[in-house]
Amino acid sequence: MTERWKPSVTVAAVIERDGRFLLVEEHTPEGLRLNNPAGHLDPGESPAQGCVRETLEETAHLLEPTALVGVYLSRFVRSSASGTEDITYVRFAFCGTVGPAIDGRTLDTGIVRTLWLTPEEVRASQERHRSPLVLQCMEDYLRGQRFPLSMVYSDPSLQGAPEMLQKA
């Protein structure tokens, strides 16, 4: 029997304010990289809820999602001494608004700092992007690509995810 393919589900925030985009600078196995506030979807949460959580953890800003920018697929292959890692990501990218950073809130492990960059600065730093989706999501946002939040339906059964019940 062959192993079933299971892509990793991630969420990302595309946050623009005054012509600048909120990115994080983070430590990765490939070195210091730039990324949207983003991360893996946790059991029991909708993609929009996961995006709010990840944005808060990585930037200390509370996100209010307003639209889905898009759903993206990408593949990442990394070779290391222990073998090859081949991961396909499904990314739900949301846009929205944020208030000021919450004073005293510590950023997630691995996050060095947050940055507000112009589109030109984001484009000029592609070699430092964690993934090609950083630029793609921004460009789609700048083109005005928006879908209603209702495009992503989360069934109430998610609230009963076994992993969440064990944490309670």
UniProtKB/TrEMBL annotation:
The keyword Hydrolase applies. GO terms for molecular function: hydrolase activity. It is an enzyme of class 3 (hydrolase). InterPro entries: NUDIX_hydrolase-like_dom_sf, NUDIX_hydrolase_dom, NudJ. Its cofactor is Mg(2+). Residues 4-140 form the Nudix hydrolase domain. It comes from the Bacteria. Pfam families: NUDIX. Keywords: Hydrolase, Magnesium. Its EC number is 3.6.1.-. Transmembrane segments: none annotated. The keyword Transcription regulation does not apply. Monomer. Belongs to the Nudix hydrolase family. NudJ subfamily. This is Phosphatase NudJ. It comes from Rhodoferax potami.
